[in-house]
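Example record

The entry below shows one chain as it appears in the dataset: sequence first, then structure tokens.
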Amino acid sequence: MKRLTVSALVLALAGTAIVAGPASPASAREGDPTLAGYYAQQIEWKPCAGRSARSLCATVEVPMNYDDPTGRTIDLALLKVPATGTARASLVVNPGGPGAGGLDFAEYLASVMDADVRAVYDVVGFDPRGVGESAPITCLTGKQTTRWYRTDITPDTAKERRTLFSRAEQISDGCLADDPVLARSVGSANTVKDMDVIRRALGDDTLNWFGFSYGTELGAYYAQEFPDRVGRMVLDGGVNPALDAMKVSEDQSRGFQIAMGRFAADCATKSTCVAKTAGGVIREINTLLRQLDRRSLPTDSSRRLVQSEAITALFFAMYSTDLWSTLRSGLTQAKKGDGTTLQLLAQLANDQTGPNSYGSNIASAFYAIGCWDYPATPGIAGLRTAARQWSKGARVPEMARAMSWGNAPCSSWFGHSAEVPAPVQSTTQAPILIIGTTFDPATPYKWSQALASQLPTSRLLTHRGDGHTVYGDSSLCIDDFADNYLLTGALPDPGSVCTS
């Protein structure tokens, strides 16, 4: 099972868009005398408490505000899995999000990489500012987080819509109450600048980057802002920076509807499926969601399964075909009146470790970063209109509605980046590898195509298959192409396709 607790869980945040908006033009430059101290840092690696014996941990200091580098600072948490041979460079990795941490991810990715790649690269992960161990922002208490995840995300009445927006506003208010300065500093623009400070602190002249999902956007904007410092760059599950938040959600809504159709067709071939035809599976899912809108289902825990959790489980399972069998069981179980498995899927997606406890701060960081990065999304009337339009003809209409209403927190956010979504532009001469999966629901294939068209030195490698991102999971063909590029810099031939 791949990356499900880091890249997939962000979609479970009420079904909202999973990628952040544009970074602003960088003011950070290595030659800037006001930043000299940050660029001159020497990393002090130490053994990591409670982690693999091979892993090393450290911090890098960056300014809270790059326009005022003498002011407050942030310590970014780093983890390195050293090369098994003589390291020639670092490979900095990012799992996506926004809001997902990179420390665990570095250990995971190092464990699935080819031995030849591991021999020559130190694999380095970091928690972006506001995330994990890097000045984590907290906008919601554990109890508030649970309440948010259980809020009706497909409101049918004026009262339900007011409740949704009231609870969404609490996220914005909580971020400001926690740390108003940090809340205005965690956007992707600053993270891109942080990446360059990290590069220099690692002792590398260029940044070698492996980004997944939202991490592809960070990589693309780094290529735009620091074109002469791009090394080997792999972008798996490309994001199109030209889209605003509502267009992102609309494209994802279509992607998940396609994925649900493919799941249903596969399910119908299994003896454990809830129905014997693909159409029957979809009907059973829609019936379940309608029933849950009226009455929750018992589980083996103290809380009953509510509709929002079932929707989260559906979204989450589309990230990897590894979860399709669990979803099959959960649907069959729910038809018999037991919501236990679907609730467990939702809890896994949400990184929930107890009734009101969570393994990370992604519930806060996801919105703190994503809502800041994008212009404001519409209010109640606009989201209601989009929900109605997107659900027309959808296989699972409630999922389409959730994709619209999930933007509610960003409709009432306290502030937004002044930048507007636009195609990325870069003068880099470095070859860049973009990997797109044809039935990726969260980063639709056409986004990878768009990103490839925006980066002239890039090459698109196509994976014909299902699930969100692919490296290290279901295609040795993709892995071989990516590994060869990391080792030699050689891109695949134009039009190269791998099939799972």
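Notes for this example: The CA atoms of residues 33 and 39 lie 10 Å apart. The domain at 4-138+181-243+420-499 is CATH 3.40.50.1820 (Rossmann fold).
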